[in-house]
Amino acid sequence: MRLHRLDITAFGPFGATQSVDFDALSAAGLFLLHGPTGAGKTSVLDAVCYALYGSVPGARQNGQGTHLRSDHAEPGTRTEVRLELTVSGRRLEITRQPPWARPKKRGTGTTLDKAQTWLREYDAERGAWKDLSRSHQEIGEEITQLLGMSREQFCQVVLLPQGDFARFLRADAEARGKLLGRLFDTLRFAEVEKRLAERRRATEARVREADTALLADAHRMQQAAGGAMELPDLAPGDPGLAGAVLAAAAVARSAARERLTIAHCWLTAAESVHVGAQRELAETRELARAQARFTEARQRAARLEERSGEHRAAQQRMERGRKAETVAPALDLRRDAVSLHEKAVRAEEHARRPLPEEHAEADVTGLAAAARRAAEELGGLDSARRAEGRLTQLLAERAGLDRQEREDEHALREADAWLGGWEGLRAGLQQRIDAAGEAAVRAEQLGARREPARRRVDAARRRDALTEQVEAADRQAFESGRRAGDRRQDWLDLREQRLNGIAAELAAHLTDGEPCAVCGATEHPAPARKDAGHVDREAEQRAFDAHQEAEEEHARDKHRTVELRSALDTVTTEAGDTPADRLATELHDLEREFEQARREASALHAAQEELRRAEREREQRLEARQGAAVRTASRVTRRETLEREQVTLEEELARARGAAASVADRAAQLERRAALLTGAADAVRAADEAATRLKEADARLADAAYRAGFDTPAAAAAALLDPAAHRELQLRLDAWQSEETAVRVALAEPETARAAQQPPADTAAAEQRAAGAERRMRETASARDAAQRATAELDRLSAHAEDGARRLAPLREEYDRVARLAGLTAGTSADNERRMRLESYVLAARLEQVAAAATARLRMMSSGRYTLVHSDDRSGRGRSGLGLHVVDAWTGRERDTATLSGGETFFASLALALGLADVVTDEAGGVRLDTLFIDEGFGSLDDQTLDEVLDVLDSLRERDRSVGIVSHVADLRRRVHAQLEVVKGRSGSTLRQRGV
């Protein structure tokens, strides 16, 4: 397909008639369609699409086409698009006029003219155009047949929309499937899926009808059992319903103990469901809390934004305070020095006041000497204090021994109580282990019988099939034997006829003068003549050959009969004379018994583990009881030792106390005297030192204020924040920072972010499900007490149900076969490992072709770095088959196409678009596309990559193909000389061609 000329009138942004000479633009092979945003570059491509298909691409198509008219057009000018092109060797001209609300010729207002379409073909011999059709439908079908593609395919193949393919690269399997489905028309495969689904529903209805009858029998059995029979939790049509009903009937006929065990199992299952519901409720509540945290974090972030100005002012105040902090040590030093000096003076006065008169006016040396004398006397009481402390420890230790004695007595009582019930606990656990072990042995025995039973069923089915084959082979051998006898008789009859006329046959070879082969005579006066029914050698030979062929056919049939009878004897020896249906029923019963025994045996490990835990606990309690007895004996000895030591210490303390109430009182008297004297000496010394430090602090303060840039120490003191103000300001700043960090962390927390993206948590529904599970658990607990009754009526109803199940088996087999095929084609079957629908499977093959075609150009654009590969891996819980990955030759790694950068995404999507164009072109019957348009995306490329992409596009014009680039990138105007410029103006846009 090659475009020659396009005329646009009152279309889109073009108010007047505009023309495009594609032949002139295509002469250079590569041309540029550019213009400012909103000028109408895409409208040129829309006009091409509208001329061919009567509609524009995608969302721009609306209603009946009345929106296509330019708002800049004169009221009397009708919208029209005329396109001249060559396709499949035919030069055509298509003219389309959309519906037009023209002014009325009389009066005011408008009237709607219908859309019109003309199709003409150029007759080269006559040099003139000839009309082909004015029918919208005929023209649409003709163009679609010539191009071999629909409008959607044309827009993807000829008008390559880079944005769509960039989204295609990042899309999921479902979105890719929709696009590829439109391009490759896989409706017929979807129809196959639909037909199989319909057939599945029809067979399912028949199965449901039979299942409904079987369920009715089950309900009657339940009534006969007085409610003790638990109906299967299956609906009509569910797999395994017949087996479940028969199994339920068998369970109902079993002993009361077995029914009670089953009821226990039901209760366990209900408890498991209840635990799951409680877990789901906890998870739902946690999700609700996470969503609440996210909402609160967003609100806190908004409040922080509102108080940002106040925060900046506080930061500035803190900065001025920090500058003053360099002077703060000097200020603090001076303030401390003043305070210390005042305190030292007051302390000296206070310290001298309680002193005795002899020490009231003493200097530092006299006071220190008096304090040393009191301290020496106090040191002599250290031994008595240690004895007093040891006596306190001794009393505490005796109290601890009494407490240990009470704890050991409690532990002994608890251990004795637990060990008293040990034998009963061990016997119960051992009984469970023995029961599970017996079930395991029974399961092993039944398992050994399964495979021989299966082989016998298969042999019986082969026996029945071989019986029919032997009968057919006998009939065939009889018929071939009869035909062989007829052919032999025919041959003998012909041979006898030939012998009767052999003289005439010999006479036919006699020649005058030559001796006769029989008598040797050279004269033949009266040779025999052939009559009308003479049989020659060839006829006899043909009859003989037919006889031989019939004999060989009869021998083959007899040999086949012998082989079939031998095979029949072999399988009959294995299967016996028992009917195949009966053997299949016995195999089904064997399988059911095996599964029941295996389920019972599965409890063996849990019971053994529980017994081991109980034995370990018994050993621990025995050890604890023995340890308590040993500690009791040692406490008696320790208590006697402590009593003796207590008596000795009390005697020593009595001697040390003297007249005081205690050693501590005596020591306190001496300590007070020494403390008063020492305090007075220290106060006098401190007062002298404080006066010296005050002078030094004044000098340091003046120097520090000058170095910090303050004129006076008072200015530095004014700028300095007091501790309360500093704490308050710092707390505000820290609170702001903490709040900001907490909000950022809360918003960035993966769990909270995921919770915010999920739907609001429905706690009420989860609570309702948990309540329902708890209610079902209580109901099953009540049902456990009702499993006690059974009646003889169950036998009759069970037999009737088994007859119904046998009649249901062929229906179920047909439904399973159809459902399996429907599930495979729909991608929902477990056998369909990649969950690929039939339509997706076909599209995956097409996508693989597209990836291969795109790789050839992508490698050129990326200098051999990238390769597109198709992947049929599954994504999450979705279906597989339409994955698309890129292989990076620099790293050797395969990654998803969504990880490509902007520029890489552009040339990857361009290569994909070109590859798709090639595949769709081949799919459409190989229609040659001589004119292509590529829409936007070049602005994301660097110079080198742009050159490589242009080289690839330049290669597309080989074999006289032209490529139009739609872009507003300024650098392309310098690189591409042939240009079609769209100029935007108040009266509408216009088109100008340059470089042609």
Explain the overall architecture.
The protein is α+β, with helices and mostly antiparallel strands and about 1000 residues long. About 65% of the residues lie in helices and about 10% in strands. The strands form four sheets. Strands 2-1-4-5-8-9 form a six-stranded antiparallel sheet. The chain has a six-stranded mixed sheet with strand order 10-14-15-3-16-17, with helices on both faces. Helix 14 (about 420-500) packs antiparallel against helix 16 and helix 14 (about 420-500) runs antiparallel to helix 18 (about 605-655). The protein is flat. The model has no long low-confidence stretch (mean pLDDT about 75).
Number of helices: 28
Strand order of the largest sheet: 2-1-4-5-8-9
Give the low-confidence spans.
Answer: none
Helical amount: 55-70%
- What would you call the quaternary organization? single chain
Biggest sheet descriptor: 6 strands, antiparallel
* Count of β-strands: 17
Structural class: alpha+beta
Radius of gyration: 54 Å
N- to C-terminal distance: 21 Å
Query: Could you tell me the mean pLDDT?
Result: 77
Keywords summarizing the entry:
996 residues, six-stranded antiparallel beta sheet, 67% helix, alpha+beta, 28 helices
Briefly, what is this?
The protein is an alpha+beta fold. The protein is 67% helix and 10% strand.
Can you lay out the helices and strands and say which pair or pack?
Elements: E1 2-9, E2 18-21, H1 22-26, E3 30-34, H2 41-53, E4 80-87, E5 90-97, E6 100-103, E7 110-113, E8 116-123, E9 128-133, H3 136-147, H4 151-157, E10 159-161, H5 162-170, H6 173-184, H7 187-224, H8 241-253, H9 256-306, H10 308-325, H11 328-352, H12 364-379, H13 382-420, H14 422-500, H15 502-507, H16 537-575, H17 580-601, H18 604-657, H19 663-707, H20 713-719, H21 723-748, H22 750-757, H23 763-784, H24 793-826, H25 838-861, E11 866-871, E12 883-888, E13 893-896, H26 902-923, E14 931-935, H27 943-956, E15 962-966, H28 970-975, E16 978-983, E17 990-994
Parallel strand pairs: 3-15, 3-16, 10-14, 14-15
Antiparallel strand pairs: 1-2, 1-4, 4-5, 5-8, 6-7, 8-9, 11-12, 12-13, 16-17
Helix pairs in contact: 5-26, 6-25, 7-8, 7-24, 8-24, 9-21, 9-22, 9-23, 10-21, 11-19, 12-19, 13-18, 14-16, 14-17, 14-18, 25-26
